[in-house]
Amino acid sequence: MSTALAVYHGRFGRATLYKLNKPLSTHAHREGHLVFKVGGRDSEMVVSERAHALSARFGSAVNPWQPHSFLPGDPDNGSVFLTLYIKPSWFLEVGRNAQGALRFGRNAIEVTGQIERLIHIVSNFLLEDEHRDLFDGYLYELTSCCYDQSWQWSGAEHDLRASFSGIRDFRIRNSIRLMRERIGDEPALDRIASDSGLSRPHFFKLFRQNIGVTPNIYMNTLRMECSIDRLATTSDAITTIGLDLGFSSQASFTRFFTANVGIPPTDYRRATYLSH
User: Which of 13, 107, 162, 202 could form an S-S bond across to 87 if both were Cys, CB 3.0 to 4.6 Å?
Assistant: First the structure.
């Protein structure tokens, strides 16, 4: 069974050790995402419909809002993964460099000797309590090494970053505001499209052009982020969280959370450590 070994929330975002034996649905994050196998059989990340190995030799880097899914290599026993969700604002602030915006040049990350050492350090820190004050520094070093490597063979960094200059269409900006306001409503993307002044097909096309994901994935991301925050920072009942987010029962909320995060919400809450 998939389970959380450690979950750490901080200014950087989230760092987790998961044991996963089930696939994850296609989803996205607003953070930069790094995944490394630290134990068990090789598995796969599918990023923008292209498969990438998760092995002793390779990890995976996923850009903010880049659709991705996960395919386990050992459905019986599972494998252990270090998964990082890095806030681009934190990466920019710590790096103090305008060129440090967190967009990776490629999705495959070679696990060099230096990166392997940092994976080992970060993973051990997640399982211990006594070195939390050093965690952010090593996490930044690992993220920075992966970022630099991802652009090592690419000369188009400035072109890629220029293509993500913001949401150009005011109707899509309005639709995002409506999604946030209606996060607990039953899925009603047709109504959001109409209230944004768009037909459903035009809305879906414009949304993907501006954001990079479908409205469904974006709405699921909002629900996922809200549920993670409430599980980590409140003692609200899981049933209450699910109902507030528009799910008809705790079972349907648990299925959604497990399909997008990899583990049940009860397990996530149990393993979470919140940095103060």
Answer: 13
Going by pLDDT thresholds of 50, 70 and 90, the confidence category of residue 169 is confident
How long a stretch of residues is the chain? 276
Closest CA to 66 of 49, 51, 52: 49
The CA R_g of the chain, rounded to the nearest whole Å, is 19
CB proximity list for 196: less than 8 A, separation 6 or greater: 171, 172, 174, 175, 178, 203
Q: Which residues in 115-125 are b (16+ Cβ under 10 Å) and which e?
A: beebbebbbeb
Is the pLDDT assigned to residue 102 strictly greater than 70?
A: yes
Q: How many CA atoms lie within 13 A of 180 on its CB side?
A: 7
Q: Given the structure tokens 């103090």, which residue do they identify?
A: 96
DSSP 186: P
Please give the pLDDT value at position 276: 54
pLDDT band at residue 154, thresholds of 50, 70 and 90? low
Q: Quote the pLDDT of residue 184.
A: 86
Tokens 């252990």 found at: 80
Residue 96 scores a pLDDT above 90: no
Q: What is the 3-state secondary structure (H, E, C) of 54-88?
A: ECCCEEEEECCCCCEEEECCCCCCCEEEEEEEECH
CB of 28 closer than 8 Å to CB of 213: yes
Summarize pLDDT for 104-120 with one digit per residue, the tens. 999 999 999 999 999 99
Q: Which amino acid is at 248?
A: S
- Alpha-carbon dihedral angle through residues 159, 154, 12, 126, given to the nearest 10 degrees: 160
Instruction: Kindly report the pTM of this predicted structure.
Output: 0.90
Contact 1, 57 (CB under 8 A): no
